[in-house]
Amino acid sequence: MLRRPLGRSRLQVTPMGLGLAALGRPAYITLGRDEDLGPGRDVAAMRARTWEVLDAAWAAGVRYFDTARSYGRAEEFLAGWLADRGVPAREVVVGSKWGYEYVGGWRMDADRHEVKDLSAARLRRQLGETRELLGDHLSLYQIHSATIGSGVLDDEDVLGELRALRDQGVAVGLSTTGPAQADTIDKAVATGLFDTVQSTWNLLERSAGDALARAHAAGLGVIVKEGVANGRLTARGAPPALVRAARERGVTPDALALAAVLARPWAGSVLSGAATIGQLGENLAALGVIWDDEAEKTLAEPAEDPETYWARRAALPWS
């Protein structure tokens, strides 16, 4: 898998990366997770699973790995794997995020799994925690789920801390969430600070597309998350039109859904959220799928309005 520049940053990423949201903690909002993982979700089992998927991703050529402070022990698992496998910092791009904190206590039935705080104090503390684990491997540090309403893009203390981090050679970015992603992206571009933006774009939720094109044109690298909509664009939940189109092309629905993302000219790296080696293989098959005008026309219908999409996402159970 050839690497390419991620926007104006000095980072070189692969077209597909691996996100660790579903690997670093026992519960997450992915359809079919019980079937994927079964009951073996203690720390040792999840660490072993994470390393297996990381090994498979590395063997397939993936060189961008995305994690966050709130992904349970994902940073710890990734750091241990990097050290054990002797991966030099120059050979990989590692992005992490600050702002959410994991509070689930490694319980499936936790009342809350994460809490959000986008203050400068949280940034300073979590950056220290991330650096302690990832050290020189940390290439990119991102605000986790920035929104206009959070006020984080107007917080001069936060922006000052991020500028200082950028001056130290770490690229800075943000991830976005919710039905007003486009407004957040445009505001982030206007600050002139950010090197990257990570947003949700998939066949069901396309509202950020024009804003991501503007961000790309302004020099930001674009990372796309949730390309299979937390499982809703896999064989477990895909709309009939996607299932038929995938069958005709001899691939799984998730591969075709990810091919749609890869075809966007502004997409720098698209994340697989695979929790198993099998899922990873199906996701990576997207790299060999040709997304053409017929697919674009045939699969225009599954799109939902943003409010509906995000309401349905919020209703997904942690399992």
TrEMBL record:
<feature type="domain" description="NADP-dependent oxidoreductase">
    <location>
        <begin position="50"/>
        <end position="293"/>
    </location>
</feature>
<protein>
    <submittedName>
        <fullName>Aldo/keto reductase</fullName>
    </submittedName>
</protein>
<dbReference type="InterPro" id="IPR023210">
    <property type="entry name" value="NADP_OxRdtase_dom"/>
</dbReference>
<dbReference type="InterPro" id="IPR036812">
    <property type="entry name" value="NAD(P)_OxRdtase_dom_sf"/>
</dbReference>
<dbReference type="Pfam" id="PF00248">
    <property type="entry name" value="Aldo_ket_red"/>
</dbReference>
<dbReference type="InterPro" id="IPR053135">
    <property type="entry name" value="AKR2_Oxidoreductase"/>
</dbReference>
